[in-house]
């Protein structure tokens, strides 16, 4: 009986704390900056067809490629103990060679230089 009453007490106490935090965290004022949408640092109410630097797009694509690379390397690491060693080495080197060729191509095209 004692454990049940302590559980109910903490349940109501945690709910009370959550309600108090919701009430206290409400923002009562809204200014123009917070109500307007944010569009990549550009003012959405001005001219919408201003030139956009292609370099930002290329940096994003490079980031996505190397981000996916990390997601593909993790399963290769976990397969180390379950797969034949020669097969694992061939697959790993093939994957790393493809990534290094891509990195060399990006470097050769000056995509990694921020200033042109």
TrEMBL record:
Leading EC class:
translocase
Q: Which InterPro entries match?
A: NADH_UbQ/plastoQ_OxRdtase_su3, NDAH_ubi_oxred_su3_sf
Q: State which Enzyme Commission number(s) the record gives.
A: 7.1.1.2
Where, per UniProt, does this protein localize? Membrane; Mitochondrion membrane
> What keywords is this UniProt entry annotated with?
Electron transport, Membrane, Mitochondrion, NAD, Respiratory chain, Translocase, Transmembrane, Transmembrane helix, Transport, Ubiquinone
Topology versus the membrane, per the UniProt entry?
Answer: Multi-pass membrane protein
Q: What is its main location?
A: membrane
Which Gene Ontology terms cover its molecular function?
NADH dehydrogenase (ubiquinone) activity
Q: Which reaction does it catalyse?
A: a ubiquinone + NADH + 5 H(+)(in) = a ubiquinol + NAD(+) + 4 H(+)(out)
Look up keyword Protease and say if it applies: no
Gene Ontology CC annotation, any one: NADH dehydrogenase complex
A Pfam match? Oxidored_q4
Q: Where are the transmembrane segments?
A: 6-24, 54-80, 86-104
Family of the protein in this entry: Belongs to the complex I subunit 3 family.
PANTHER family membership: NADH-UBIQUINONE OXIDOREDUCTASE CHAIN 3
| Stated role | Core subunit of the mitochondrial membrane respiratory chain NADH dehydrogenase (Complex I) which catalyzes electron transfer from NADH through the respiratory chain, using ubiquinone as an electron acceptor. Essential for the catalytic activity of complex I.
Protein name from the UniProt record: NADH-ubiquinone oxidoreductase chain 3
